[in-house]
Design a protein that fits this description.
By secondary structure, this protein is α/β, with parallel strands linked by helices. It has helices at 7-27, 43-59, 74-86, 105-111, 123-130, 139-150, 170-179, 194-198, 244-247, 262-278, and strands at residues 3-4, 33-39, 62-68, 92-95, 159-163, 183-187, 203-206, 224-227, 231-232, 238-239, 253-254. Bound molecules: NADP nicotinamide-adenine-dinucleotide phosphate.
């Protein structure tokens, strides 16, 4: 049977390390504060925001909550971001996405001071990642690198295939793997002979957004499989982009859903907040 990569345990370990770091910073008079902005009351967003605030409380990061009505205008939101950018006591700004249709998400992301861009979505953060300079990295792919490292999976020199090229997962994932000295292929909806491409992978990262699409035909014997997808199946149970039962017997290591990549995203957000606070 494969090694099950336990994202719950690894994220708990990271949060405990951060808690100690935050305690030491506090002893030196440094307090870390994250501003969390939610527009409207989308139930899924409310759950994510609640989990982020809970993680802040556990680690010792102060969180400021801004719950704005769904009718908030872009101008009003940009004004708030401008205010938060200017506040010396706020280290990180997180605007929960998606935003209502009347607000241009790109304009909002661009308005956040890159020094406070703990989601790593600002074009300056993405550009820095691209040219190997320091900056915040998108939390889900950063979490996947930690999962691999802390599970003893060597990345350097490996053939890595990423399925998906979104700005928040696929593209930054490919750049991070490149930074780790992997040989990287990015597949997407226009890729020809997808199974042929994915069967080359020593490490296969699946961020395709299609429930249980990846079966054993896509996987090389002994590969490491990381499943980024999150869906509800017909029985309302969580499942990933990978058909876990089918794929697990042929791979050497695999992440489950839930309990794989998901918990790492918040842990890495907390890590970015601590970095934002330590850099002052
Ligand atoms: P996305 O923006 O929908 O991107 C999906 C990517 O998959 C696109 O690049 C698309 O190609 C490609 N694709 C779609 N169908 C394909 C096919 N049949 N063959 C090959 N490639 C195909 O999704 P995302 O935001 O990256 O998220 C991916 C998954 O991860 C979703 O299930 C999402 O819920 C989950 N997610 C989880 C976390 C977490 O914390 N665990 C965080 C973020 C996302 P094109 O570019 O050509 O359209």
């Amino acid at each position: 049977m494969p090694q099950i990569i336990d994202g719950k345990a690894i994220s708990a370990q990271i949060k405990d390390e951060l808690k100690e770091k935050v305690q030491r910073l506090k002893e030196n008079g440094v307090h870390i504060c994250l501003a969390v902005v939610q527009v409207g009351d989308d139930p899924a967003s409310s759950v994510y925001v609640g989990n982020k605030k809970k993680a802040c409380a556990y680690i010792g990061i102060e969180s400021l909550s801004y719950e704005l009505p769904a009718e908030t205008t872009q101008e009003e939101l940009l004004r708030l971001i401008g205010e938060l950018n200017g506040r010396a006591d706020v280290n990180g700004i997180l605007v929960q996405l998606p935003l209502p249709a009347q607000i241009d998400e790109d304009a909002v992301i661009r308005a956040i001071d890159p020094k406070k861009d703990v989601d790593g979505f600002h074009p300056q953060s993405v550009g820095a990642l691209c040219i190997g300079q320091p900056g915040f990295v998108s939390c889900t792919p950063a979490g996947i690198i930690q999962l691999l490292r802390r599970s003893g999976v060597e990345i350097a020199g490996k053939e890595c295939v990423v399925i998906g090229r979104s700005n928040i997962v696929g593209k930054p994932m490919a750049l991070l793997l490149l930074r780790e000295n992997a040989t990287v292929t990015v597949a997407h909806s226009k890729t020809r002979n997808l199974q042929e491409v994915t069967r080359r992978a020593d490490i296969l990262i699946v961020a395709v957004g299609k429930p249980r699409m990846i079966t054993r035909e896509y996987v090389k014997e002994g590969a490491v499989v990381i499943d980024v997808g999150v869906h509800r199946n017909e029985n309302n149970k969580l499942c990933g982009d990978v058909d876990y039962e089918d794929v697990a017997p042929v791979c050497s290591a695999i992440t489950p859903v839930p309990g794989g990549v998901g918990p790492m995203t918040i842990a890495m957000l907390m890590n970015n907040c601590v970095e934002a606070g330590s850099a002052r």
